[in-house]
Amino acid sequence: MMMNTWKTQCEFPPGTVVTGKWRGGNYQLIRELGSGANGIVYLAKGTKGHTALKMSMDSLSITSEVNVLKAFSKVQGDSPGPSLHEMDDWDSPRGKIHFYTMEYIQGPNLLSFIRKNGQTWVGILIVQLLDTLEKLHQEGWTFGDLKPENLIVSGPPPRIRFIDVGGTTMNGRAIKEFTEFFDRGYWGLGSRKAEPTYDLFSTAMLFIHMYYPKKFTKVGDGKKQLMQQINAHSELSRFSPVLQKALFGQYDSAKRMKGELLSILSEKRNQAPSYARRHATRQKKKKKSGSLKETIMVLLLTIVLYALYIYSYLL
């Protein structure tokens, strides 16, 4: 009932102009992009072009999400999520509404991208995701609500980005938002405490979902059921060792999971040309640092898959 109340207060038709009370920014709403547990996100047009605008009646929620976006900006390298533009209040016809504007990231969500371009991309995009999660975890945050709808593949070249940070939680606290299929608590495989292992479980479930687009519900022993689903799929079963560790909380970091996933990807002869395999072998023999091997492997796989992506697009 409470959700219906705030959603009604935050629903506005296209063309509505939102004016910031303190900063004076004007934003014309174009269309709704999505809604969550505490607010609605719109595509809007401001003085600097298109932006994503999230509004809510809950000032604490808005402040928390803004803090998350600020934390994202501190992550080394390109920000994994949208960049923050500004935060303000709006004296709407229905009362005060809190809002913030952020970068509008265009592209299909993760599942839509895989449906269009093929499962060949699953491994490399999950590697990208794990690299991003490692940086986020080091900053003291757990993403929490990992699901295809919250992950956009922008580009070219294809790059995975977060678009909804409402579930992002400081490590050690209770997860704020979750979706049952990707939640270890639902499957009886752990708590809802914000920690790296929570995100790694969800990452494994994302991987599974790319091969089982139609979600299945828990029946009986969640642990047994998930392993049966993995091993029943000829392609997915290749990744069983990594997925099992992630599902059962046996990785202490996203970096560890990423390294073992790359090892499996490098063994898939049909996914990379012979020169890439020889190059990876030479790197191993030289016993260079793990991070260098991972960087080279990601680069090679990305180049090969991006070439296939462009080729299919031109066709």
Commentary on this structure:
The protein is α+β, with helices and mostly antiparallel strands. The protein has 2 domains: 2-102, Phosphorylase Kinase, domain 1 (2-Layer Sandwich), CATH 3.30.200; 110-314, Transferase(Phosphotransferase), domain 1 (Orthogonal Bundle), CATH 1.10.510.10. Helix content is 44%, strand content 18%. The chain has 10 helices and 10 strands. The strands form 3 sheets. The chain has a 6-stranded antiparallel β-sheet, sandwiched between helices. A hairpin with a 2-residue loop joins strand 3 (40-46) and strand 4. Helix 4 runs antiparallel to helix 5 and helix 9 (274-285) packs antiparallel against helix 10 (290-314). The longest helix has 25 residues, at 290-314. The protein is globular. Residues 269-288 have low confidence and may be disordered.
Comma- or semicolon-separated keywords:
alpha+beta, Transferase(Phosphotransferase), domain 1, globular, 2 domains, 18% strand, 315 residues, Phosphorylase Kinase, domain 1, 44% helix, 6-stranded antiparallel β-sheet, 10 strands, single chain
Element order: H for helix, E for strand:
HEEEEHEEHHEEEEHHHHHH
Number of extended strands: 10
> Radius of gyration from the CA trace?
21 Å
CATH class of the largest domain: Mainly Alpha
Tell me the layout of helices and strands.
Layout: H1 2-10, E1 17-19, E2 26-35, E3 40-46, E4 49-56, H2 59-74, E5 84-92, E6 95-102, H3 110-117, H4 120-138, E7 141-142, E8 151-154, E9 159-162, E10 169-170, H5 196-211, H6 222-232, H7 240-247, H8 254-267, H9 274-285, H10 290-314
Antiparallel strand pairs: 1-2, 2-3, 3-4, 4-6, 5-6, 7-10, 8-9
